[in-house]
Design a protein that fits this description.
The protein is an all-alpha fold and about 90 residues long. It has four helices and no strands.
Length: about 90
């Protein structure tokens, strides 16, 4: 299962419109978050759900640090099975 998830992640990182524009260091950070997620979670459904969330969250290279924080929080929430609301507006 983990090998399949790794293949999906690598395909995502080479084909996502924002991921392909990232600097090497930023891409490495995103890859680390995603790989750490599959080590903790390991199933294809969860990986697919997180990548779908990434597709909606990663909006541009300029907002990458903020977007990566949201993706990291979502990944942690999925691992811990808690609800996560990324709406930061008050």
């Amino acid at each position: 299962m983990i090998n399949d998830s790794e293949k999906i992640i690598e395909h995502y990182l080479t084909s996502n419109k924002v991921a392909v524009t990232l600097d090497e260091a930023d891409l490495l950070l995103l890859r680390k978050v995603l790989y750490d997620f599959i080590k903790a979670k390991g199933d294809l459904v969860s990986t697919s759900m997180l990548l779908a969330y990434c597709s909606n969250t990663l909006t541009s290279k300029n907002s990458f640090p903020k977007d990566l924080a949201k993706v990291s929080n979502k990944a942690l929430a999925m691992i811990l099975h808690i609800d996560y609301d990324d709406d930061t507006s008050e």
